[in-house]
Automatic annotation (TrEMBL):
Its EC number is 1.6.5.2. SUPFAM superfamilies: NAD(P)-binding Rossmann-fold domains. InterPro entries: NAD(P)-bd_dom_sf, NmrA-like, NmrA-type_oxidoreductase. It comes from Paenibacillus rhizoplanae. The keyword Cell inner membrane does not apply. It is an enzyme of class 1 (oxidoreductase). Keywords: Oxidoreductase. GO terms for molecular function: NAD(P)H dehydrogenase (quinone) activity. This is SDR family oxidoreductase. The keyword Oxidoreductase applies. Gene3D superfamilies: NAD(P)-binding Rossmann-like Domain, UDP-galactose 4-epimerase, domain 1. Pfam families: NmrA (PF05368). The lineage of its organism: Bacteria, Bacillati, Bacillota, Bacilli, Bacillales. Residues 3-227 form the NmrA-like domain.
C-alpha cells in the first residue's frame, strides 16, 4: 500500500494538495505532516492522520516518516535561505533513514539557469542536489512565481483610476495560481507520471505582461484601464523579481494537470474583490 505524506500541510499549497488527494484516494493512504498539530484540527476532521513534522526538530521527523512511501517536501517558508537549506537537509536525511522510496520537492521554476553549474548557490538547486545524492527516487516540482504578487500592484486602484502604473522594465511573467500548481503536484504525488525520476518546470505555457494585465482589468472594469510605466514607482517586489527568471516557459504544468492553466482574468479575481 502506498502511503503519501504532505509536509507543510497547514500551509496554503499543502492544504490544497491534501484537498485534491482526499477526492482521489482513500484518506487512509494520506498523512498530513504539520509543524503545529494544534492548528491541524481541520485536517483531522476530514479523517486524515496528522503527524508532527517540524523541519527544525529531527526527532519529530524520524517518527513522522515511519511507513511513508512517497513524501512531498514543501519547501520551508523561513526567510533565511541558509536555514531553509539546513531544514531541507534534515528532512532528506530522515527520509533516507526511514526508507522513504520517493521524495518530491517544491522548488522554483528555472532557478537552475541562474546558478553557476559548477557552484550552485540557491536553496532550491542545493536542495535538489542533496536529494539526488540521497539515492531516493525523486520528483522536482519547480513552481512558477505565485500569481499573488499582483496583490501589491494596486489593481483595485487601477480599476477605479483607469491606470495601472508599474515600475519601468521588460517584465514578463509565467506566473500561475496555487490551485493549478496544487493540481499538478497532486498528479505527481500520486505517481500518475510513472515510476522513476522526474523534473518539472511548472509555469504557464505562455508569458503575459503588464499590458495584458491592463487589458484584463479593462474587461473587468468595463472601461479602459491603461498601463503606464513610471520610475517613481518603488516597491521591493521589483527588486525581488529582477533576481528571478519569471519569463521562461514550459508545457509541464498543463501536461501534469491535464488541462489548460487558469486564465489570467480568473487568477487575479481574488486580488480585486
Ligand atoms: N513560488 C512562489 O512564488 C513562492 C512564494 C512564496 C513561497 N514559496 C515557497 O513555497 C512554499 C509553499 O507555499 P505556501 O503558499 O503553501 O506557503 P505557506 O502557506 O506559508 O506554507 C508554508 C508551510 O511550511 C510550513 N513550515 C515552515 N517552516 C516549517 C518548519 N520548520 N517545519 C515544518 N513546516 C514548516 C508552515 O508551517 P506553519 O503552518 O506551522 O507555519 C506552512 O504550513 C513556501 O513555504 C515557500 O518555500 C513559493
Amino acid at each position: 500500500m502506498t502511503t503519501i505524506m504532505i509536509t507543510g500541510a497547514n500551509g496554503q499549497l499543502g492544504s490544497l494538495i491534501l484537498e485534491n488527494l482526499r477526492s482521489r484516494i482513500p484518506v487512509g493512504h494520506i498523512i498530513a505532516g504539520v509543524r503545529s498539530v494544534e492548528q491541524a484540527s481541520f485536517i483531522r476532521e476530514q479523517g486524515i492522520e496528522v503527524r508532527k513534522v517540524d523541519y527544525d526538530v529531527p526527532e519529530s521527523l524520524n517518527e513522522a516518516f515511519d511507513g511513508i512511501s512517497r513524501l512531498l517536501l514543501i519547501s520551508s517558508s523561513h526567510t533565511d535561505d541558509n536555514v531553509r537549506l539546513a531544514q531541507h537537509k534534515r528532512v532528506i536525511d530522515a527520509a533516507v533513514r526511514s526508507g522513504v522510496g520517493h521524495i518530491l520537492y517544491t522548488g522554483f521554476a528555472f532557478s537552475q539557469q541562474r546558478s553557476d553549474p559548477g557552484k550552485p548557490d540557491n536553496v532550491h538547486t542545493l536542495t535538489e542536489q542533496a536529494i539526488m545524492e540521497s539515492g531516493m527516487e525523486y520528483t522536482f516540482l519547480r513552481n512558477a512565481l505565485y500569481i499573488d504578487f499582483v496583490g501589491v500592484l494596486g489593481l483595485k486602484e487601477a480599476l477605479s483610476s483607469g491606470e495601472l502604473v508599474t515600475a519601468p522594465g521588460e517584465w514578463r511573467f509565467n506566473s500561475v495560481g496555487r490551485r493549478d500548481l496544487a493540481l499538478a503536484a497532486t498528479a505527481a504525488v500520486l505517481g500518475e507520471d510513472g515510476a522513476g525520476n522526474h523534473i518539472y518546470e511548472l509555469t504557464a505555457p505562455q508569458t503575459w505582461d503588464f499590458d495584458d494585465l491592463a487589458e484584463v482589468l479593462t474587461e473587468v472594469a468595463g472601461k479602459p484601464v491603461v498601463h503606464r510605466q513610471d520610475d517613481g514607482i518603488q516597491h521591493w517586489i521589483y527588486a525581488f523579481m529582477s533576481k528571478l527568471d519569471t519569463s521562461s516557459t514550459s508545457g509541464d504544468l498543463e501536461r501534469l494537470m491535464g488541462r489548460p492553466v487558469t486564465p489570467l482574468k480568473d487568477s487575479i479575481l481574488p486580488f480585486i474583490v
